Amino acid sequence: MALISQEVKSIIIFNTMRHKQIIFGLFFGLLFIYGLAINFHMALWADDYGRSLTGHNLSAIIENTYKTYFHWSGRVTVIFATYLFLLKDTITPLIFNILNPAIFAALIYGMFLLAYNKTPHKFTDLARLIFILTLTWFIPTKIGEVVFWKTGAIGYLWPITCSLYFLYPYKQLTKTKNVVRDNFFIITGMFLLGLALGMCLENLSVALSIALLTIIIYCHRNEIKNIRWAYAGLIGHIIGTVLLLTAPGNFIRVKDTIDHINHMSFFMKSLMFMEKVVVHFLPFIIISLLLIKLLDKYDQQKLKRQLKQYYFFLGISLLLTFAMFGAPGAWFSGRATFASDVYIIIAIATLFSDSSWHKEKFSKIILFICVPLLIFDMCQTYNFYQIVWQQVKTREMIITQSLANGIRNVTLPPIYYSEKYNTINDNTISSYRFFVGDWTQDWTQDASATYYNLNSIKLENKTK
């Protein structure tokens, strides 16, 4: 009887685990399918046009990346990837449409992994994932530009996601867990990964270098052995960061951008920057204080441990934020700020503990509030992109007919969008709505006309 009971118990446990795997598989599968649908209905806009015309072979891409490094930007890794995955009349844009939603799903998974040092396997972990996704979807100011826009996704979403997985084995060292083998191939791979990641995004590279160096110092003081891979990754990342920051193109770009800010006094720059920092971080601060208060009231024993994790990721987020002060004109960039948003969301997520109060009550509250909000807003966002996509296809039909008739100066109808497709978080669509609907700027006209092999593009009238 005891044997039968044990067998039944084993079957129940197995089925429960299988059901959990199905649930998490559905979560990430649906997130991937949603991103896939958006990416396949995402027309080119802004920088996409110019980045798509860099040549038709690898040597041309390398040559253009080299020129960009010396004349515009040191972001070699993401510039090369952008040229490669947006290349016109090749299969690489299709690969991007499939790869990008997978990377967005990997971002959410990586944030969970860093926050809780484990893979999701409990039903309460589903609430945590939805909590992380909700914060990531609604709070960052440029979510649409860094997740859906092709150039923006490669330039921001991809390196930020990679940074999570690059940081993970280092963070495990703080728990005296060495999860990486120390052999030649791993050491070489970590060096190359660090080098490539260091040449992606200025504030991310600076902040991550400091975070990695801090962990290495901790390992040295605690005599943690067999971590040559960690030293290799750090050295590669620092070299990449130096190459990024000292790129000749950076100094050329400074002269051509945000001139009105460059002429401000240091005091006014600092004041403007701090004002933007406070306003931007206010929602995060409020959520953090609420969760800390709950932990203090219901689970004081875990509060101290959770706060250590919280302060670690908060520190990285602040480094990412204040590293932007060194940008041209101390510019507070919404897209670059996404990196600091990701890390402060991880910090907040660490406060979502395993206490009984959170299991029984907070998880239900999260699911009850967040799921309807996400479903509504994500559906609205998809509807908007689909409608714009259909109108862009109509524009392209007009262009094709004009070219067939030998007409290279084309006037196109404007993009119309209904207010009924407004979203709760307007940042998922706002910039895209402007750039697609309004081709009145010279550089957008020139880039789009060149892309379509036209002399000029004009609009019949302004977008509603």
Shape: globular
Number of strands: 2
Helix content: over 70%
Order of strands across the widest beta sheet?
Answer: 1-2
Order of helices and strands: HHHHHHHHHHHHHHHHHEHHE
In short:
With 464 residues, this protein is an all-alpha fold. It has helices at 2-39, 47-51, 58-71, 76-85, 92-116, 123-138, 143-147, 150-173, 184-198, 202-221, 228-245, 248-256, 259-262, 266-298, 300-322, 337-350, 356-404, 430-437, 442-451, and strands at residues 409-412, 456-459. Strands 1-2 form a two-stranded parallel ribbon.
Textual characterization of the structure:
- The protein has 464 residues and is an all-alpha fold.
- Helix content is 73%, strand content 2%.
- It is built from 19 helices and two strands.
- α3 packs across α12 (248-256) and α5 packs across α6 (123-138).
- It is globular, with a radius of gyration of 24 Å.
- The model has no long low-confidence stretch (mean pLDDT 85).
